[in-house]
Amino acid sequence: MQMLGAVSRKKVKLLLGVGILAGVAIPAASVWAESNSATDANAAGESEFRQAVKFGFSGEAIQGGVMIGDAPAGTRSLTFEGEPIPVDEDGKFIIAFNRDAGQAANLVATLENGETVRKFINIAPRNWKIEHVAINRRATTSSAAFQARRAPELAQINAARRVVSDSKGWKQTFIWPVKGRISGMFGNQRVYNGDPGSYHSGMDIAAPNGTYYVAPADGVVTLAASSPFTLEGNLLMIDHGMGLNSAFLHSSEILVKQGQQVKRGEPIGRVGSTGSATGPHLHWSMKWNQARIDPILLTGPQG
Predict the structure, then answer these.
(1) 288 to 20, 117, 184, 244, 247: CA distances (angstroms)
(2) How far, in Å, are 78, 81, 97, 103, 107 from residue 121 at the CA level?
(3) Helix (H) or strand (E) holding 80
(4) Is 283 helix (H, G, I), strand (E, B) or coil?
(5) Would you give the end-to-end CA distance of the chain in angstroms?
(6) Which residue, 106, 188, 245, 268, could crosslink 129 as a Cys pair with Cβ 3.0–4.6 Å?
(7) Which is nearest to 93 in space by CA: 104, 107, 82, 105?
């Protein structure tokens, strides 16, 4: 952590507690804050500083995790790792940590009076399941024919992720789109004869073919594939607002249309095995901007 340049600066450490995931204790993550106020040395400045650093957070500072925050009173703008992020009319915002996020992240609020408040967030690591297999990785996705089919599909996916909606689903408590056996966990990875493959980008939930699945939170449909994609099959994507989106893969049927607003708990599709799938299941993946995140950290275990 960077050393402070002035003795008068105060630090506040907000313990976010210890979480449990898959039976493994997760180290406590912490947030440090500092202010550049020149009046910190006196009582009035100290009071102002203490008010400024009262960020409220829910969620976990952990790889693949999401946090909802309350910005300091009088925040004019907010940046996370140097990138601007929006703050809603209630002063709330969202940040998330990629599966391979580093040990720390930097959050900076600029107040109306020009002062800045910085928060240094220590990110807890995860013990990902890495499987080493003594076989060569299949090269089916590197052929020219595959790439020719894949390019327009990726263009649609990227366009869907660029959609900015005013949905408030990101503020809600997420629910499971369907319940069943977890057949694939987020973050798992195979290494083929020393050659790392891509990690699993979502959570797989096994369910009978044709089972309805529902929207985990409010949102706007940004992509409803009219025909199966090569890998994802019948692909459905929903924007929950503030850069947070969900993708649902391998559907046997999509029940909603692009541009449609959906409500949490509303049926939006049916489980299937279209695309690259060995059996009927729902692959649910989530992203916040460029960060891939773990859906189970938003829903908690199945009830």
Answers:
(1) 22, 23, 21, 4, 12
(2) 15, 10, 11, 8, 8
(3) strand 75-80
(4) strand
(5) 40
(6) 188
(7) 107
Token pair for 19: 């979480």
- Cβ proximity of 255 and 267 under 8 Å: yes
Of 170, 235, 179, nearest to 203 by C-alpha is: 179
Q: Cα-flanking dihedrals φ and ψ of residue 141, to 5°? A: -90, 5
Whose CA is closest to 96, among 62, 124, 54, 55?
62
Token pair recorded at residue 107? 């959050």
Q: Which residues neighbour 301 within 8 Å (Cβ) at sequence distance 6 or greater? A: none
* Separation of CA 211 from chain center: 26
CB 60 within 8 A of CB 16: yes
Closest to 81 (Cα-Cα) out of 48, 113, 105, 114: 105
Confidence of residue 4 (pLDDT cuts 50, 70, 90): very low
Enter the pTM of the model.
Answer: 0.82
pLDDT 10s digits, 230-284: 999 999 999 999 999 999 999 999 999 999 999 999 999 999 999 999 899 999 9
Please name the amino acid found at residue 61: A
Q: What is the largest CA-CA distance in the chain?
A: 70
> With contact defined as beta carbons under 8 Å apart, do 266 and 238 qualify?
no
Between CA 76 and CA 87, with CA 82 as vertex, the angle to 5 degrees is: 35
Under the banding of pLDDT at 50, 70 and 90, the label for residue 143 is confident
As to burial, measured by CB atoms within 10 angstroms (0-12 exposed, 13-18 middle, 19+ buried), residue 254 is buried
Q: pLDDT of 194-231, one tens digit each?
A: 888 889 999 999 999 999 999 999 999 999 999 999 99
- With H, G, I as helix, E, B as strand and everything else as coil, classify residue 224: strand
Sheet holding 92-96, edge to edge: 56-59, 66-70, 92-96
